[in-house]
Amino acid sequence: MKPKILFTDLDDTLLNSKKIVSKDNREAIDLMLDAGHKLVLNTGRPLLSCKSVTDQLDLKRNGCFISSFNGGLIYDCYTGKTLYKRTISLEYTRHIFKETARAGIYCQTYSNEGVLAREMTSELSHYVSETHTPYKIVQDLPDHLRDEPVKILAVHMSDNRSVLDAYRTRLSGWARKKVSTFYSDPWYLEHVPYGISKGSAISFLCKHLNIPISSTLAVGDEENDIAMIRTAHIGAAMSNATSQVKTCSNYITKNDCNHSGVAEVIHRYII
């Protein structure tokens, strides 16, 4: 049997609206792993934030990986080793913080210990409560930074994202071949090293594991999932996905994130 490898997003995909992995999803994942297939949590979250999910699924086993920061850091759950890491230069980081401040947009970055932010805000409070990520207040951020970050996140909590869209448009000329940007949520605009994406994570892991792209599946719901859905041999959109994601997909689940849509994909294409 040739092993298949499933790349799944977390929020609003593998996780339901309560940030829990359903019983059906857990059982389907156990079945595929027991059969020798592989699993990658392909997420915009930092590595630390994935611990609650790996604990729910008991993923400290061979064939389980985390692609965090939208592919910027790839980790082997079994060996506990980082396989790949790309960072944003401190020069670019300072520019992004300057431009988000100018636009009146909250901005945060990350260290090995968790989120770094200038002050406690409603945006930070919401983020850490949703992702269970530790945080540290650093008032002179980003000048305080000594290590280049893997990701920067701009957050604007509003019913529409016109403020983030306008900021993204203004940044686009400068950002060309410096950083890549995409939404992971209507409120969250991700900044990662140029060329990094959930799709690049598929390419790296397939080469690292000597698994052909023809053995890959991906499932997600937001703009930052499009690259992996297009890269994978079979790209599935959750029924709760954005219309943009659905347009790019080979398959749209009948069940949403609250009704074990990932299990549906596993049973249809892997088991």
Structure explained in plain terms:
This protein has 271 residues and is an alpha/beta fold. It folds into 2 domains: 156 residues, HAD superfamily/HAD-like (Rossmann fold), CATH 3.40.50.1000; 104 residues, 2-Layer Sandwich (Hypothetical Protein, Haloacid Dehalogenase-like Hydrolase, Chain: A, domain 2). The protein has an 8-stranded mixed β-sheet with strand order 5-4-3-2-1-12-13-14, with helices on both faces. The chain has a 6-stranded mixed β-sheet with strand order 8-7-6-9-11-10, sandwiched between helices. The chain is globular, with a radius of gyration of 18 Å.
Question: What is the element layout, followed by pairings?
Answer:
Layout: E1 5-8, H1 10-14, H2 23-34, E2 38-42, H3 51-57, E3 64-68, E4 73-76, E5 81-85, H4 90-102, E6 106-111, E7 114-117, H5 122-131, E8 135-137, E9 152-155, H6 162-175, E10 179-185, E11 188-193, H7 198-209, E12 216-220, H8 226-231, E13 234-237, H9 243-247, E14 251-252, H10 261-269
Parallel strand pairs: 1-2, 1-12, 2-3, 7-8, 12-13, 13-14
Antiparallel strand pairs: 3-4, 4-5, 6-7, 6-9, 9-11, 10-11
Helix pairs in contact: 2-10
